[in-house]
Task: structure prediction
Amino acid sequence: MHKVTHRKKRLLLILHSVFWLVAGVLLHTLLPIPATSETETGGEVIAMVNHVEIRKNELNRLISQFKQKAGKKSVTLDEKKQLLKNLTIRQLILQSLEAQALRKQEPVIKKVTEFENSLVITQFIKKHVEKELSLTDGEFAGYYRDHKTRFRSDEKIEASVILLRTETDAAMVLGKLKKGEPFEDLAREYSIDLPSATKGGSLGTVAIGTVYPQVWRELKRLKPGEISKIIETKYGYNILLTNKILAPEITPFEEVKTEIRNILLREKREKAYDKMVKELEKNADLKIFENRLADTGGKE
Result:
C-alpha cells in the first residue's frame, strides 16, 4: 500500500514538472515581449538576473497580457511564479553570448531598425496630428447647422399589402377591392404573406431600400388611401395600399452628436496630416520618378 502511494506521488511530481515545462513554453510563445526597456523603472525589484533587475511593473504587464489571452480574471501564485520564470529565462537568453552575436547579424539589425522606424513614425504623426483634435461645443453646433440636410431622414410610407400566389387570384381580389370590400378583411382572408396578413396587410413604415424597387415606385405613385395595380415580385403578385406618406425629418442634434464628432475628428486629422506633410516637404530635396512606377509591384 505504501509502495503504491509513493509511486502515485512520484507520478504526480513528474506530471507536475511536465505541466510547467509545457506551460512555460506555451506562455513564452503566446505572450508578447513587454513593449518597454529591458529594465522597468517603476515598481519593486522582484528578481535579479546577473545583476539585471526585473521589477514588478514588468511582471504586472505580463500578468495583464496573460489574463487577457487566457480569458482569466485572476492568476494563481503558481502562475505568477511561472510568468516571472519566463521573464528570467527571457533575460538569460538576451544576456547569452549567442544572443549578443545574433544582435549583430544583418537580418536582426534590419528588423530592429524597421521596428524602431515604425515606432518613431507613429509617435511623430501622433505628436503632430493628435494635438489638433480638440473640439468645442460651437464646432458641433456649427456643423449641425450648416449640414442639416445630411441628417435628414428618408421619406417613409405607411403601407399595406395583399400578396397572392397567382395573377388570377390577384385579379379576383382586386375586383373585390374595387367593389368596396375592406382591404384589411381581404388581406386576412387571401394574403399569403402571413406576418402582414394577421395585421390586415399592414407592412408598418417602409422606406426606399426596404422593399422591392417596383413596390417602392408604386407606393410613391399612390395617394394616401389609394390602391395599386397588380405588382409582380419573385414572391408573388402584390396589391398595395398607401396609408400615409411621412415627409423627411431632420434628426435631432443630440441623436447625431457622436456622428458629428467622428466627422469633425476625421476632418481635423486629415487637415493636420496634410499640414505636417507640407511642412516636411517644404525644404526637402524631393524627387519622384513616376516613369519608373510601371514595373513595380510585380506582375498582376
The radius of gyration is 35 Å.
